[in-house]
Amino acid sequence: MRRTFALVLAVFLLAGCASTAPRQDGMRIDDCGRTETFPQPPRRVVSLNQHATEILLALGLGDRLVGTAYPDDHAPPPSVAAAYAEVPKLADEYPSFERILEAEPDLVVGGYASAFDDSAGRGRKRLEDNGIRTLLLSESCSRAPFGMDALFADVAMFGRVLGLEDGAAELIADMRRRVAAVERRLAGVPPVDVFVYDSGEQTAFTLGGHGLGDDALRRAGARNVFADVPKNFADVSWEQVAARAPQAVVLVDYLGAPIGAKRDYLRGHPLVSGAPGVRDGRFSTIPLVELVEGIRFPDAVERLARDLHGA
């Protein structure tokens, strides 16, 4: 009995440590122009940007996530909200290099390229020179349109790096199922021409055709009127917005940017107030984190389909 108990205990302990066990040959990851080698899954991870943090928590990283920063809203998805509340917040925006070091990470993950700003002292090389590996979500460096399959490739990559392959597979399957359900409901429905308004008065900062948000619009039965702009987000002129006569407007919501003020600005704009979507009051509101790479991609597709088509 004692030998049996000891064997069971040993198996249990090994299973509990499996996610951080050393790898025989290491793992090489090519990420946004840099190559990182992981001899073992990281044990202490800092995540800079909310959408990156949500991916890591959804994979099941748990207490290995020792710091986060730069939240974009107050309400993480219910699936990760409790875990998110337990992660120490290093800063309201980006933390200093010294604050990052205080968390003693062996990996720092960035959601946007600005997370690794050389001029602010947080460059990838500087972190790596201090023994800290770095990874950046691929949407931030992609030179081609970034869609759902590229998101899934990133999720799978993080699963391999962190030793959380099962969590990655489950997350991908669930997201794929939810998006497919919306696409089935919208089969044959004509798309709605949509203008996405993030911010700006002299020019309009809008969603271009290279980001994940454009793919979310398409799968939700919408046609981004600035899909021809080869960027994730870009400035366009108000004359261009008016000329493209969007049938609906999607307002981007994030901390510090009142939605009501955006709506009122468009309604009072001398050029855009006459566009069909503004004139008819056909507005939808979507959190910024649903339009960038992350676990909220199905939320964006479901929200937009509901608002634009009632589906």
Automatic annotation (TrEMBL):
Pfam families: Peripla_BP_2
Keyword list, A-Z: Signal
Gene3D superfamilies tied to this protein: Nitrogenase molybdenum iron protein domain (3.40.50.1980)
Region forming the signal peptide: 1-20
Domain spans labelled Fe/B12 periplasmic-binding: 44-311
InterPro entries cross-referenced by the UniProt entry: ABC_Transporter_SBP, ABC_transptr_periplasmic_BD
Family under the similarity heading: Belongs to the bacterial solute-binding protein 8 family.
Record protein name field: ABC transporter substrate-binding protein
Native organism: Saccharopolyspora rosea
Source taxonomy: Bacteria, Bacillati, Actinomycetota, Actinomycetes, Pseudonocardiales
